[in-house]
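hiii so um. not sure if this is the right channel but i have a protein structure encoded as C-alpha cells and i wanna go backwards to a sequence. like what aa goes where. can anyone help
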C-alpha cells in the first residue's frame, strides 16, 4: 500500500539525507500467543496515543527518541506504531494497509511491560480483513518494541494465507523507516517486501514502499536487531568484542565480563548462517562458506545485543 500523504512533500523537496545505522534482519518461527491483560485502543482520527511508557528514551537507527512527559507514541488504526520527537518520526509497519473488522470480536489492543529503561510495547491487531485481499481473507499480527536492546519484532498470527495474492501496490507494508517530522525525506529504512515467507530486505533510504505479495505463515517472526555501524574495516570492534579475519577463520575476542551468551554469524542479507555458544574470551569461527563481502557477527546476551561487521575478501 502506498503512503500517498508523503508525495507532496517529496515533490517539494526530493533530496535525501545520509542514511543512519540500520537493522539486521532475522526470520524465526515462534508460537503466536494472544495478549492477556491488554488495553483496548480508543482511536481519535485513526490514532491512539500510548501514555504508559513513561518519559524514558528509545533508540531507532542509532537515534535517541526521548519521550518526555507527554510521549508522542501512537498506535495507528491500519497496522502500525509511530514514535515522534519534535524533529523526526519513526514508523513501524506490521501489516499496514486499509483493514476492516471481521466481526464483533475484532479489536486492536496493547500491553506495556517491564521496568523503566526496559519497557516492552506490544500492539496487537486481532481478526482483521485486508481491504485489498480476496473475500474471506483475515489476519492477526503484533508489533513489539523493546526499549533495552532496541529489538523490533513483527509477529504473524493465524491468517488466511493463500499464496501470492498481492502486488507491490496492493499488499500490506512491513518494515521500519525514519523521516523528519515534515516527511520531506527518508533518513533511514529497513523494508521487508515481496514473498511473505522468503522476503527481500531493502535498506535504501527512500520512500519506496513495496509491499508483501503474500501473508507470512502463522507463527512467523520478523526480528530487526540494531546494527552497530563500526565500518567494514578488518578488524572490527563493538563495545563487547573485536573480530579479525584470518584466512577462512574469524577470530573473536570478548571482554571477560561478557564472555557468555551466544554468537550468531549473519551473511550479507542479514540471515543467520551459524549460531554457537560463547566458549570463552577467545574463539574462532569458520567462515569458509561465506561469500566475499560484508558480513556481521552478533553477540546475544540476556541483557542486550552487540553487532560488529567485518569484510571477507
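sure thing!! here u go:
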Amino acid at each position: 500500500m502506498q503512503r500517498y500523504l508523503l508525495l507532496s512533500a517529496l515533490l517539494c523537496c526530493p533530496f535525501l539525507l545520509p542514511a543512519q545505522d540500520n537493522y539486521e534482519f532475522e526470520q524465526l518461527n515462534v508460537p503466536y500467543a494472544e495478549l492477556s491483560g491488554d488495553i483496548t485502543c480508543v482511536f481519535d482520527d485513526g490514532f491512539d496515543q500510548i501514555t504508559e511508557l513513561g518519559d524514558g528514551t528509545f533508540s531507532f537507527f542509532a537515534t535517541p527518541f526521548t519521550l518526555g512527559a507527554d510521549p508522542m507514541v501512537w498506535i495507528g488504526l491500519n497496522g502500525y506504531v509511530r514514535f515522534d520527537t519534535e524533529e523526526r518520526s519513526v514508523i513501524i509497519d506490521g501489516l499496514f494497509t486499509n483493514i476492516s473488522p471481521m466481526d464483533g470480536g475484532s479489536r486492536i489492543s496493547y500491553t506495556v511491560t517491564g521496568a523503566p529503561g526496559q519497557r516492552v510495547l506490544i500492539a496487537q491487531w486481532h481478526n482483521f480483513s485486508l481491504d485489498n485481499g480476496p473475500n474471506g481473507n483475515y489476519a492477526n499480527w503484533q508489533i513489539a518494541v523493546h526499549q533495552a536492546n532496541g529489538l523490533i519484532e513483527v509477529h504473524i498470527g493465524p491468517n488466511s494465507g493463500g499464496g501470492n495474492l498481492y502486488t507491490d501496490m496492493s499488499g500490506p507494508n512491513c518494515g521500519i523507516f525514519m523521516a523528519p517530522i515534515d516527511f520531506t525525506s527518508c533518513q533511514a529504512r529497513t523494508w521487508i517486501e515481496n514473498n511473505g515467507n522468503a522476503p527481500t530486505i531493502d535498506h535504501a533510504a527512500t520512500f519506496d514502499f513495496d509491499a508483501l505479495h503474500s501473508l507470512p505463515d502463522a507463527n512467523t517472526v520478523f526480528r530487526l536487531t540494531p546494527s552497530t555501524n563500526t565500518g567494514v574495516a578488518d578488524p572490527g570492534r563493538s563495545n563487547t568484542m573485536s573480530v579479525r579475519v584470518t584466512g577462512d577463520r574469524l577470530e573473536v575476542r570478548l571482554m571477560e565480563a561478557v564472555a557468555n551468551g551466544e554468537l550468531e554469524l549473519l551473511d550479507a542479507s542479514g540471515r543467520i548462517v551459524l549460531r554457537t555458544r560463547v566458549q570463552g574470551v577467545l574463539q574462532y569461527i569458520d567462515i569458509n562458506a561465506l561469500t566475499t563481502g560484508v558480513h556481521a557477527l552478533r553477540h546475544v546476551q540476556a541483557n542486550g545485543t552487540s553487532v560488529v561487521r567485518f569484510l571477507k575478501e
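oh and DSSP finds one helix and 25 strands in the chain.
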